[in-house]
Design a protein that fits this description.
Strands 1-2-3-4-5-6-7-8 form an eight-stranded parallel β-barrel, surrounded by five helices. Helix content is 38%, strand content 15%. It is built from ten helices and eight strands. It has helices at residues 16-30, 46-56, 84-88, 100-105, 110-122, 135-139, 143-154, 181-195, 213-216, 234-241; strands at 5-9, 39-43, 63-67, 94-97, 126-131, 164-167, 201-205, 224-227. The structure holds 1,3-dihydroxyacetonephosphate. Residues 9, 99, 168, 173-174, 205-208, 226-230 line the site of 1,3-dihydroxyacetonephosphate. 1,3-dihydroxyacetonephosphate (13P) binds at residues 9, 99, 168, 173-174, 205-208, 226-230.
Length: 246
């Protein structure tokens, strides 16, 4: 039985003050969701992890925090990086790795992403490993090959029972162009087959909104979502977390 994970990736948004205000609105709106059938995760910027970890402690047992990245070393001369030990201290549960933005802007490789994912698992963090093709790759019929390579290289040596994969087609991120639900479901099914573990959690990400969440979550191979823009408003995100299958 796969438990869906609804995650909000705030990217480089929200000061600490804004983050606390957000949680004050969000938490009461989550109180009615069926608690045992899904988990809700927020990935704020690093600066907001500490105040949020203090704020949510004891308030809601199915709401947890994720970092937006994690380094493979515990400490050292790695300016601008964050260590898994620093995240452990704040009761962070997950770590996003391999998001297409650091892949694109900072040329992150599958090898680095693999090291980050392993480091997360070595420190009891669940890596949310992002994969997905560009528009050109899809147009050229290369989407499956690209995603398969990201899966094989990014997940080498990874414990599949403590893993979340997010399929995020790059052309659907922040563009308003959601991947058609059946097509997203087909790719998520392929990813599951390539990983070879039926119970791996596979999310979809890319222009998820309150008006398409119910359809997306009705798909058989989609076990949750990774939401960017629409997670920045707590009322909107609460509607997404409160999805109902159709
Ligand atoms: P949007 O929901 O804004 O398209 O972003 C998706 C994403 O990148 C989540 O990690």
């Amino acid at each position: 039985m796969r438990k869906p994970v609804i995650a909000g990736n705030w990217k480089m948004n929200m000061t600490c003050t804004e983050a606390i205000e957000y949680m004050r609105v969000l938490i009461p709106l989550l109180n009615d969701i069926p608690k045992k059938d899904r988990e809700v995760v927020i990935a704020p910027p690093f600066t907001a992890l500490y105040p949020l970890s203090e704020f949510i402690r004891g308030k809601n047992d199915y709401l947890s925090l994720s970092s937006q990245n994690v380094h493979w070393e515990d400490s050292g001369a790695y300016t601008a990086e964050v260590s898994p030990l620093m995240l452990n201290e704040l009761s962070v549960k997950c770590a996003i790795v391999g998001h297409s933005e650091p892949r694109k802007y900072f040329s992150e490789s599958d090898e680095q992403i693999n090291k980050r994912a392993k480091s997360a698992q070595d420190h009891q963090l669940i890596p949310i490993v992002c994969v997905g093709e560009t528009f050109q790759q899809r147009e050229m019929g290369e989407a499956e090959r690209v995603i398969r390579r990201q899966i094989e290289q990014g997940l080498e040596g990874i414990e599949v029972k403590k893993l979340i994969v997010a399929y995020e087609p790059i052309w659907a991120i922040g563009t308003g162009k959601t991947c058609e639900a059946n097509e997203a479901n087909r790719i998520c099914g392929l990813i599951r087959k390539w990983i070879g573990y039926e119970d791996v959690i596979i999310q979809y990400g890319g222009s998820v909104k309150s008006n398409n969440i119910d359809e997306i979550m009705s798909m058989s191979d989609i076990d949750g979502v990774l939401v960017g823009g629409a997670s920045l408003d707590p009322t909107n995100f609460a509607r997404i977390a409160n999805y109902e299958k159709i």
